[in-house]
Specification:
By secondary structure, this protein is of the alpha+beta class. The chain has a domain at 41-130: Beta Barrel (OB fold (Dihydrolipoamide Acetyltransferase, E2P)), CATH 2.40.50. It has helices at 16-35, 47-52, 130-139; strands at 42-44, 57-63, 68-69, 75-80, 86-91, 104-112, 117-126. It starts with 15 loop residues before the first helix and ends with a helix.
Length: 140
């Protein structure tokens, strides 16, 4: 009796669908790496650290002045860190609506030594919560 030898495929055949899938995965990885680079921003509460940093950071502090609009139409105010050191913050955004009630502020941006001020891309304002007030009254 004669036997018939059937050739088997030992290699993997790449189909156009596989190439498209790998391309989508590769694009997602590249987009993720470049898209999240700003998410890894340094967080600091010190003006000295903000001045010495060369990259975008989050500077947390307390309101040092009520703020005003400068000659160029930018919102400026003084931010005080936990060491009582002050820095001028300049923002192209309008004054936040709840700015006067702020108990803390986080300015996201970088320090510009030419202007001797912190240039904020965005401002996060933390105001006292009505829940904190209710909780304080409940403990009395």
């Amino acid at each position: 009796m004669a036997t018939v030898h059937v050739p088997t495929r030992s290699g993997f055949e790449i189909k156009p669908l596989h190439i498209a899938g790998l391309g989508i995965i590769l694009l997602a990885i590249v987009y993720g790496l470049f898209g999240f680079k700003d998410a890894f921003r340094a967080y600091t509460t010190s003006v000295d650290e903000a001045i010495s940093s060369s990259r975008s950071i989050q500077l947390a502090g307390f309101l040092g002045s009520k703020g005003e609009m400068d000659a160029e139409g930018r919102f400026t105010f003084m931010l005080q860190d936990s060491n009582k050191q002050m820095v001028k913050v300049v923002s192209n955004q309008p004054r936040p609506s709840n700015f006067e009630q702020a108990i803390s502020i986080v300015a996201i941006g970088h320090y510009d030594s030419a202007q001797q001020s912190f240039l904020a891309d965005s401002l996060l304002v933390k105001c006292p919560s009505k829940y904190q007030e209710l909780q304080a009254n409940a403990t009395k």
